[in-house]
Amino acid sequence: MTQDVVLSSSLSWQQIAAVANGARLALAPEARERIVKARKIVDALVERGIKGYGINTGVGALCDVIIDRDRQQALSHNILMSHACGVGDPLGLVETRAIMAAQINNFAHGASGVRIEVVDALLALLNANCIPVVPSRGSVGYLTHAASIGLVLIGHGHAVQGGVRITGTEACRQIGISPLQLEAKEGLSLVNGTPCATGLACVALSRLQLLMGWADTAAALSAENLGCQITAFSEKALGLRKSDGLQKVGSILRDYLGDSPMLAASAGKRTQDPLSVRAVPQVHGTVRDLFDNTVETVERELASVTDNPAVSGDASTPEVHSQAHAVGAALGLVLDGLAVAAAELAAISERRIDRLVNPMVSGLPAFLVPESGVCSGYMIAQYTAVALVAENRRLAAPASLDGGITSALQEDILTHATPAAWKLLGILDNLETVLGIELLAAAQAYDLRAEDVAPAKRTGKVYADIRAVVPSYRDDRPMHDDFNAIRTFMKATFINQEIG
Description:
This protein is mainly alpha-helical and 500 residues long. The protein folds into two domains: 5-192, Fumarase C, Chain B, domain 1; 201-492, Fumarase C, Chain A, domain 2. It is built from 20 helices and nine strands. The protein has helices spanning 13-20, 29-48, 72-83, 93-107, 116-127, 143-153, 168-174, 186-191, 195-225, 235-238, 244-257, 261-266, 275-278, 280-302, 329-357, 359-362, 379-395, 417-448, 457-469, 479-492; strands at residues 5-7, 25-27, 87-90, 131-132, 135-137, 158-161, 164-167, 310-313, 318-321. A three-stranded antiparallel beta sheet has the order 4-6-7. It has a two-stranded parallel ribbon with strand order 1-2. β6 and β7 (164-167) form a beta hairpin. α11 (244-257) crosses α14, α15 (329-357) runs antiparallel to α17 and α15 runs parallel beside α18 (417-448). The model is unreliable at 496-500 (pLDDT under 50).
């Protein structure tokens, strides 16, 4: 059972991912105190008429238009209405929950100035799993996604609970509140900052962490079937290159393959293996290094205030700071890099699949079926992997360089952090399928091996686990059903202690 998450100072990326996947979220008393204090600062700014962006001014190119006090509630309301212009299919519940958790985390730093009632309403929606419907497309940064979440708080928009789509008003009723009337600054804070990109990044990190483990496992199974020269993975050889990720992957491969009778039988038969096998520590290890770098950036983002404007001081000495912390350049850049890394994992996996199905290099029946010709076996499965790798290549183009000019030249540089996170999630979908195909192809290769040559203990266990959910293939069923089954297996199974 998933444990509750308590927000004290700042959530970690793992905690955001846990909430995204169903954990309940609660505020520690000190987080509540920061939120309440920040609201008192905003109230003081309003009372004294101190100029603050989006508090008593318009937004974007309208930032110099002064908004009288009696119109500031209308400003907050109207910001949600005008900014809720996303299009396309909605985000999944996991992705939306992640964004909501990251929003609450941002408010809990005590520099946004929303009322505690707003945060409590977001928490209530999250913990009741009454999740706003958020169109996935149409945002260059964060505004449209977050606005669709905010709509539900004021009784507009839609939410999904128990698979049923309900109105924002009904969602409020479900959590026991009346639709909120937003106060000064709250409309802007609800659409502001980097929680959209940060929340999606946490989901991506969680998924990639699991897939990195599966990539190492799939590579071990393929390498064993291809009779690799395990000396390339020795601690002494790999220790010549400085990379934490490389050393970790090398250790995993040695753990999988060190006791392999199959590899003992093939030892010394070739000088070195092709790169898709020999360079697994170098390629997979680099992905792990980039993953760790991305974690550092995401953790910094979660620990930072990303609202504009931010408030500080206290009710007696209120301060408001107009800046650009809502710009997610750091996230956009690292997520673009991680997208390329994930695409590379899929690319090298596809090359190993090709070697497994190709009788010129595998030493196995063509396309991994004993009756080649009558049966096509894994011929077209490799085509599918090629297609997904090609799609990843297109998706891996950098979103952070897309640019664009909005709001009448006021916002004249855009870093596209949320689109960077979104396309990374698409690449991970494809990576999962490609790795699943490699696992199935490797299992099929074991089926065709002579019974007197056994696999290593750990690879043999994975092979048996795969066969417990997907039987050997003989062109006797649509192969895409096997792909669905292996993906379900991958999501439900943790391979080794390096994952998690």
